[in-house]
Amino acid sequence: MTMSTITSTRNILDAVGKTPCVELHHVVPDGCARVFVKLEGLNPTGSYKDRMARSVIEEAERRGDLRPGMTVVEATGSSTGSSLAFVCAIKGYSFLVVSSDAFAEEKLKTMSAFGATVDIVHSPSGKITPELIPVMRDRAKELSQGEDYYYADQFNNPDVLVGYEGLGRELLEQIPEGIDAFCGAVGGAGMVMGVAKVLKENQPHCSVTVLEPASAPAITKGHGGLHSVEGIGIGFLPPILDKQLYDSALAVEESEARAMSRRLAKEEGILAGTSTGLNVVAGIELAKQLGPGKVVVTVACDTGLKYVRGNLYTAE
Ligand SMILES: Cc1ncc(COP(=O)(O)O)c(C=O)c1O
């Protein structure tokens, strides 16, 4: 008889992390390295952001910067917001979030469902423009004046890395044969930097590639631009992005990312958003370059259930 590994927990926060890592079998052409994807959509709010929300709140509590009765404030495309709203709900903090109608309605409604107060910055084009995130951040800074407020400030807050280092440690356990290349799309850069730190410390040969949408090439060309890949391509270089921790940068066409998200659902059974499609397009490119016998790892950032009302799965 085999022992069950299913455990119970007293605290839903312990349900964050420990996600499966699966190999892709259908979308990777012959003659490539193996490609593995960490299924972060299985976190409680359906996104790897649960990891950073937990570490941002708990590190601030540990230092005494965040105390009972205070209000947490953040500007977010709403994945971070959904995760912070979840953690704040459990811990009893009020949460004031600045977001935009450029992001999926599902996410905006999720934050409200967890009890957050949502302040919307209107995007006239409906797109993520280079100006949008700075405007949202200025508004959040303005709203967080006063000693009863804690501004989570994901773009400048090194506490995000603590949560993502856990993701990196899980990968070391899940792929004992070693990882030759890791890639991930950059928003605030917390995920790719947290994982890269662990991989570089433990497997120095592993190369790390940071990714962005081709129409918003801040890392590869030095300027932002319009796109609809939620969570990434923020129009400027995020302060957490550390040149020492990555080896190369790659810009990926949004249309290829969207097509890959659809293929992942139909051919691999992985329902995930556009940033995941972008990660997998790049992962396959690296796998082609490395060839058989090597291992490439990337991340399914979130669940595609966040996007079913939009046109991700219906458009060609
Ligand atoms: C769906 C999605 N993918 C990717 C990212 C990028 O993650 P990071 O901010 O850690 O770079 C985000 C961040 O908001 C996101 O929401």
- Structural classification: alpha/beta
Beta-strand percentage range: 15-25%
Radius of gyration: 19 Å
CATH architecture of the largest domain: 3-Layer(aba) Sandwich
Shape: globular
Mean pLDDT metric: 95
> Strand sequence of the main sheet, in spatial order?
1-2-10-7-8-9
Q: Unreliable runs, pLDDT <50, ≥5 residues?
A: none
Sheet bearing the most strands, described? 6 strands, mixed
Ligand list:
pyridoxal-5'-phosphate
Number of helices: 8
Give the beta-strand count.
10
InterPro entries: Cys_Synth/Cystath_Beta-Synth, TrpB-like_PALP, TrpB-like_PALP_sf
Protein name: Cysteine synthase
Domain Tryptophan synthase beta chain-like PALP: 12-302
Pfam families: PALP
Topology:
Blueprint: E1 21-23, E2 34-39, H1 49-63, E3 71-75, H2 79-91, E4 94-100, H3 105-113, E5 117-121, H4 132-143, E6 149-151, H5 159-174, E7 181-185, H6 190-202, E8 207-213, E9 248-252, H7 254-268, H8 274-290, E10 295-300
The chain binds pyridoxal-5'-phosphate.
Structure explained in plain terms:
This protein has 316 residues and is of the alpha/beta class. The chain folds into two domains: 12-47 and 162-306, 3-Layer(aba) Sandwich (Rossmann fold), CATH 3.40.50; 48-151, Rossmann fold (3-Layer(aba) Sandwich), CATH 3.40.50.1100. 35% of the residues lie in helices and 16% in strands. Strand 4, helix 3 and strand 5 (117-121) form a beta-alpha-beta unit. Helix 1 crosses helix 5, helix 2 runs parallel beside helix 3 and helix 5 packs across helix 6. The radius of gyration is 19 Å and the shape is globular. Pyridoxal-5'-phosphate is lined by residues 77, 79-80, 185-192, 230-232, 273, 275, 301-302.
